[in-house]
Please model this.
Amino acid sequence: MNLINNPTIPAEQLQLAAEARKDYHEACAALKGKKSADAEKHLRKAVKHHPKYSAAWVTLGQVLAAQQRNDEARSVCLRSSIVDPTYVPAYLCLADIAAHAGAWDEVLTLSSRALELDPANNALTYEYHAAANLKIHNVAAAEKSALRAVEIDKGNREPRVHFVLAQVYEMKGDSENEAIQLRKYLEYATSPDDVAIVQQLLSNLEEHHRKGDATDYRSGASPAGVVSSSTPLWGPPDIDEAVPAVRTDPACPLQQILKETSQRTEVLIESLQRFSANERIEHIYIGKNGKPRNITSQVVNYVAQLQENSSGYPTIREYRSKSSGVRQRSVVDNGTAAFALMFHPTHLGHFNFRCEGLTYLLGLPAWQVHFEEKPDPDEAFQAVQIGGSLYLPRFKGRAWIGTDTHEVLRIETDLVSTVPEIDLRREHFIISYAPVEFQNHSIRLWLPERTFLYIEYRGRRYERVHNFSRFQLFSVDTTQAIKEPIANQDGPSQ
Model:
């Protein structure tokens, strides 16, 4: 796969040292001859001659990724995004690595960033954007991006997007268009193994269509590098099953990190007080085969109010008033804005923290910190309410904290153990934060931008996606009509 197809050439690339350009061309020749070791050698020489040679960094990342040296690949692709934050292939390189790791929220963020930089010319960007939306069951957005990729890629250089579109139409129950896209893929695909897989899928689809059989015809296979919507595997792995790679040099100053992050949390409460946002909620019921069976969405007006009581203990209240869409939810998740408060001074002692090392998140250096809630019910951070009963599941997770700002950039959590009393087997949160500028208040705060929830409760599996936009900041004394939170008597509320 060639990521270096952006027609816009950074000015610095036109001023390359002759040695760097020569090594890059020799690396490309080696790749054509399938001599990856020689290609790697020349690429490393190229970036040594010219450390800001972003194209060479990306190509080196692709070479390393092809050899399953993913940690090294990610590091050099990050280097490309750092030396030139406007270079689109750097974000696509990172998106490709994240896609193979199943980190679809990261793929969505990276491809969205690439689209911001170049919304008109790169079909591959739209393909990744489509695949990420498909994986989180945002079918409409996946279809829109995939169709845009097809429109741009008039020469069908990247036929995989037709397979992504086929999966979109499978989710929509449109077998006619699904078959059309599978045939399109076969028309342009070059890999014999991939062609054989898709030919079998198309044959099965046509056979079931003739018989009027509604059963699943898929084998779960998909062409190389393409996300399959039919795998029974569900949700991200447990945070302790897949530990992201980090650098352990320099040493991680854990106590300083916690102190600085704790102070930032206090500033957040003092500055934020009350904020509102538009919130789009998508609720997906997952069948036993790992495929979505029912998807509903709604747009609500979201308000969160943070404050400290007389003892300095932080509290948060969330309110949602329905704006549009269909609400069919048996599980209500509240408290998205509260997770970062775990770093408040009153909560720090309730967790065991372990710094895992230094990494990069979307081009920003970040400390990767593991945490686990202590087994003291009197210090429980979260609760699950069902009717009049309250349950206190312990959770563990990982936080990414900016090395310079000590802002929380991302939090991912899992249950320490299941809650058999209510048959809660899984609760996996992913919360991505982004900087929000409040011009009227001359303040910049990091707030939740997108959250994912994967929950298995009473034998059923659900996914919930929250997208926040159009933030507004209010003073505590602002007069504003706020409705009480949406009540639910059947399922758990957090």
Notes: The longest helix spans residues 192-211.
